[in-house]
């Protein structure tokens, strides 16, 4: 008992010795004010609690402190917050075998063999990113070619586009695949001479995928560490985890318990069951010094536009007769949302197509009569909205949680799917602001890169990295850099009930900030904004990256 007490005291002394007021001096600082306007400052005083004490204008006399950090005139921004990402997905992708840079089958084979040797613990070797076109192979690779790299353990590798998987013989054996296994609806088992070749296209991939064991706890811990490094190196000090499973939560809790949780995670349970399993009957408190909280529930109203799963009011132009997938009936949606709202979970619903957005807006309008108070209903993506429905976003304080890079990645595909005449309310950032809908920006990582600077560039230009289309796509929906930065900081914090803690640099907020290699408000082109590099990332007044 006494030993425990002494240890606790020692720990206390150490932390207080390590912290004291710090003056972050000589910076070109920016933050977004409560009115949405840009605030500039030249120095920032951070208290020994890791929170902002005050900002100083440039040239203003600063308080003397024991510790002074010289920013050397560099540009300082609030830590960026991704309002919609998938933290474990980012990390798991990063720790798996990545074949996307291989130029030949032989190079891929040696990379697979080396990875398997370096990672002996997981029984299955899992990876992705292969592309037989990039190898100049002119055909799919085979199980036998994979066996020559790894024979004694199952190997399962997803193609670069996610539409095919490549298995070795051990993996097919474990999945019970033989020459007699029929191809499922919507998929194809590639065969040669009646025998499976090792390639499983689309729905057939699930035949192998379903026997792949879930990642080991150790692998998941590594994945979270990697995800945090990737976030910090990109200037993200916090992220919303859209669809946290109970397993994910345990990984995050382990990191918090071990003192490995550096970034702040605002979690939304993957469906009501996950939220209830994680949090019981109400959102959790903030844990680990405001680094982890489960605040709400993530639900789905439809699919995605690329696979024609987005639910549309009128048929797809490039697939007449098809209107996409409605995931839930009106009644089901109302029931699940009520179930979550009863326990005061915040509700975030994925809606891409104009029919799904309209259905969800209707559900919120109905529920808002019953579930009153500060609810902050969130619509995730809000990609294709009927212009007639845009104004409904501003009512009931609905948050538009949008991803600027989706617009620059998708505009050609959106035109093919629907035709430009039906896209008047597509990726309509400026309309959301004009209608009074709080705007939160994110990237949907790992679907897109977690780097927020391409997002900022897309938001102000509506041009992709190659400058297409000239003048921007539906350019009237561009926002200003101030508005875009606000959506990536204050807006993203507000969207997660965290604006009293993060999202701006002002008295009482955590001193979460980044130093970057250029003055983003003084770059002439979107390209220069996109190429901004993060130099240092600080959380709670301490430098956490590079470590
Ligand atoms: Zn997502």
Shape: globular
The largest beta-sheet arranges its strands as 8-15-16-17-18-19-20-21
Overall mean pLDDT: 94
Based on CA atoms alone, the radius of gyration comes out at: 25 Å
Bin the helical content.
25-40%
Beta content comes to: 15-25%
| Secondary structure tally: strands | 24
Describe the structure.
This protein is α/β, with parallel strands linked by helices and 547 residues long. The protein has 18 helices and 24 strands. The strands form four sheets. An eight-stranded parallel beta sheet has the order 8-15-16-17-18-19-20-21. It has a six-stranded mixed beta sheet with strand order 3-2-7-22-23-24. The chain has a six-stranded mixed beta sheet with strand order 9-10-11-12-14-13, sandwiched between helices. Strand 19, helix 12 (390-394) and strand 20 (399-402) form a beta-alpha-beta unit. Helix 15 runs antiparallel to helix 16 (481-488). The two termini are 35 Å apart. The model is unreliable at 10-18 (pLDDT under 50). The protein binds zinc ion (ZN).
């Amino acid at each position: 008992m006494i030993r425990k007490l002494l240890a606790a005291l020692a720990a206390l002394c150490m932390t207080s010795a390590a912290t004291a007021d710090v003056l972050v001096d000589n910076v070109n600082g920016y933050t977004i004010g409560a009115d949405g306007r840009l605030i500039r400052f030249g120095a920032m005083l951070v208290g020994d609690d890791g929170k902002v004490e005050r900002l100083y204008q440039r040239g203003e006399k600063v308080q003397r402190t024991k510790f002074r950090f010289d920013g050397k005139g560099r540009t300082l921004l609030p830590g960026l917050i991704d309002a919609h990402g998938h933290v474990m997905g980012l990390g798991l992708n990063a720790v798996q075998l990545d074949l996307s840079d291989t130029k030949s089958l032989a190079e891929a084979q040696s990379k697979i063999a080396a990875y398997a040797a370096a990672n002996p613990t997981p029984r299955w070797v899992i990876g992705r990113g292969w592309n037989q076109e990039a190898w100049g192979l002119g055909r799919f690779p085979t199980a036998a070619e994979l066996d020559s790299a790894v024979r004694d353990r199952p190997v399962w590798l997803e193609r670069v586009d996610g539409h095919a998987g490549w298995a070795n013989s051990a993996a097919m054996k474990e999945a019970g695949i033989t020459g007699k296994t029929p191809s499922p609806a919507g998929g194809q088992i590639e065969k040669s001479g009646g025998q499976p070749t090792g390639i499983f296209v689309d729905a057939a991939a699930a035949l192998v995928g379903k026997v792949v064991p879930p990642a080991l706890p150790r692998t998941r811990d590594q994945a979270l560490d990697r995800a945090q490094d990737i976030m910090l190196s990109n200037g993200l000090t916090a992220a919303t985890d859209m669809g946290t499973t109970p397993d994910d939560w345990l990984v995050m809790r382990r990191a918090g318990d071990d003192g490995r949780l550096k970034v702040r995670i605002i979690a939304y349970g993957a469906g009501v069951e996950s939220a209830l399993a994680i949090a019981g009957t109400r959102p959790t408190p903030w844990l680990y010094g405001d680094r982890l909280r489960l605040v709400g529930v993530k639900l789905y109203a439809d699919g995605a536009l690329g696979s024609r799963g987005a639910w549309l009011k009128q048929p797809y132009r490039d697939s007449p007769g098809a209107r996409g997938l409605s995931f839930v009936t009106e009644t089901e949606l109302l029931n699940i949302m009520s179930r979550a709202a009863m326990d005061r979970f915040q509700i975030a619903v994925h809606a891409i197509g104009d029919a799904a957005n309209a259905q969800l807006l209707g559900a919120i309008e109905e529920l808002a009569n019953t579930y009153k108070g500060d609810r902050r209903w969130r619509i995730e993506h809000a990609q294709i909205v009927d212009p007639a429905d845009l104004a409904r976003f501003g009512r009931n304080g609905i948050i538009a949680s949008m991803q600027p890079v989706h617009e620059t990645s998708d505009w050609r595909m959106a035109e093919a799917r629907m035709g430009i005449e039906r896209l008047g309310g597509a990726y309509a950032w400026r309309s959301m602001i004009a209608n009074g809908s709080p705007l939160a920006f994110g990237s949907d990582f790992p679907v897109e890169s977690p780097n927020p600077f391409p997002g900022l560039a897309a938001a102000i230009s509506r041009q992709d990295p190659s400058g297409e289309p000239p003048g921007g796509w539906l350019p009237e929906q561009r926002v200003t850099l101030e508005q875009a930065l606000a959506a990536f900081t204050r807006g993203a914090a507000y969207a997660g009930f965290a604006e009293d803690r993060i999202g701006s640099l002002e008295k009482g907020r955590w001193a979460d900030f980044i130093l970057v290699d250029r003055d983003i408000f003084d770059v002439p082109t979107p390209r220069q904004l996109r190429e901004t590099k993060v130099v240092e990332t600080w959380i709670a007044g301490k430098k956490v990256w590079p470590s």
